[in-house]
Design brief:
Layout lengths: L12 H12 L15 E7 L6 E7 L1 E3 L2 E5 L10 H8 L2 E5 L5 E7 L2 H14 L2 H8 L7 E4 L4
Antiparallel strand pairs: 1-2, 1-5, 3-4, 4-7, 5-6, 6-7
Length: 148
C-alpha cells in the first residue's frame, strides 16, 4: 500500500488538526509548534503493522536540504510509533512548504548523529532535556536524503 492508501489521523486532536490545517494551507498556516514560533515539517509514512498512511509533524531541523527526524517522544522510555514505521520502510513523503515530495531516510549514528543532535537542540532546546529524561533509551535520529 502506498501513500494514497487510507489515512488515519493522530489520536491526539491537536496533532490531527495541525496536520490538516498545514496541508490545506500549503504550509502557510499551522506551520509552527503551537505558539512557540518554531517551524515544523510534516512527514508521511506507512504504518508497519496497519499499512495505513500516518502523518507526523516534527520540529524543522534542516541543513542544506537535509532534514533530521528526531524520535524523542518527549523523552519517554519508548520510541514513538513512527520510529518502527521508518525501520520497516525508509520511504517517506516530506513536506516543508506547499508541496510534499518523496524521499528516503536513514538512521544516523556516531559523529554524524552528534552533529545533527547539536543542530536539533539549537532549533529546539528541550531536546537536551528529553535526552536526560529518556535515561537509558538512545533517542534515534533519521536523516532525509537531499531533495533533488
Amino acid at each position: 500500500m502506498g501513500f494514497d492508501g487510507e489515512y488515519v489521523p493522530s489520536t491526539w486532536d491537536w496533532v490531527a488538526e495541525q496536520v490538516a490545517e498545514y496541508e490545506a494551507s500549503g504550509g502557510t498556516k499551522a506551520n509552527t509548534l503551537r505558539d512557540t514560533g518554531i517551524p515544523i515539517i510534516i512527514f508521511t509514512t506507512i504504518g508497519h503493522k496497519s499499512g495505513k498512511v500516518r502523518k507526523v509533524p516534527l520540529m524543522r531541523v534542516e541543513h542544506e536540504g537535509e532534514y533530521a527526524l528526531v524520535a524523542s517522544k518527549g523523552g519517554a522510555p519508548s520510541h514513538p510509533g513512527w520510529f518502527y514505521n521508518l525501520e520497516a520502510n525508509n520511504t517517506i513523503m516530506m513536506q516543508d512548504g506547499p508541496e510534499p515530495y518523496e524521499t528516503q531516510v536513514r538512521q544516523i549514528e556516531g559523529d554524524e548523529y552528534d552533529l545533527w543532535w547539536d543542530r536539533a537542540v539549537a532549533v529546539y532546546p528541550p531536546y537536551a532535556d528529553y535526552k536526560i529524561k529518556a535515561g537509558d533509551r538512545h533517542i534515534p535520529v533519521f536523516l532525509t536524503a537531499k531533495q533533488a
